[in-house]
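Title: Comparing notes on inverse folding

I've been comparing how different people in this forum approach sequence design from structure. To keep things fair, I'm posting one structure and asking everyone to reply with a full sequence. Here's the target:
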């Protein structure tokens, strides 16, 4: 069993079309607080990002925000977090988020959410880390992406072992159960953090 002290959640700075996204973000916050898991996220006060942080704080949870200086004002930086780190660059932001987290979850979001999840999943494939990565597929948001990932597997651009590194669930509690029971596949690292 893994002891999860903190989880990084990638999610949108927009709220999205469906109210289900906000509802599930609140459920995820409750699950994290129930398990005494700290939220690590992008540091904004708007969209799903802000809602998730606010819900965590309202429930008595801990929240670490990490935001680059250039986005601190544009994304409306959250000012009431347990900890707030302002970084010099996006790269520094993502590295610090990775270092402070025991696992990674992508809620519905846009290009940035996908970029962050794909990078951290790639790092798992390369053996840079051995932490669980997953999609919280709320209201079928990621269905077509999941179909495409399966297509990549069929077309032999992704191996089964790599494909299986990405855990997919539609319920926050089920996803966290996978994380608690996660066993990293032994690999020889292709790169280390200094080479990324």
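Reply #1:
Here's my take.
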């Amino acid at each position: 069993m893994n002891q999860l002290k903190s989880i990084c959640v990638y999610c949108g700075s927009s709220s999205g079309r469906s109210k289900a996204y906000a509802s599930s973000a609140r459920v995820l916050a409750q699950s994290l607080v129930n398990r005494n898991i700290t939220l690590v996220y992008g540091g904004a006060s708007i969209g799903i990002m802000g809602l998730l942080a606010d819900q965590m704080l309202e429930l008595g949870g801990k929240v670490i925000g990490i935001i680059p200086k250039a986005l601190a004002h544009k994304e409306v930086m959250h000012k009431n977090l347990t900890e707030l780190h302002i970084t010099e660059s996006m790269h520094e932001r993502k590295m610090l988020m990775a270092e402070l987290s025991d696992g990674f979850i992508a809620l519905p979001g846009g290009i940035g959410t996908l970029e962050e999840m794909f990078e951290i999943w790639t790092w798992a494939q390369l053996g840079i880390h051995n932490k669980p990565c997953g999609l919280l597929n709320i209201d079928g948001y990621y269905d077509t992406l999941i179909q495409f990932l399966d297509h990549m597997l069929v077309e032999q651009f992704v191996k089964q072992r790599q494909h299986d590194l990405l855990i997919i669930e539609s319920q926050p509690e089920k996803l966290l159960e996978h994380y608690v029971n996660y066993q990293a596949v032994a690999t020889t690292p292709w790169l280390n953090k200094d080479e990324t």
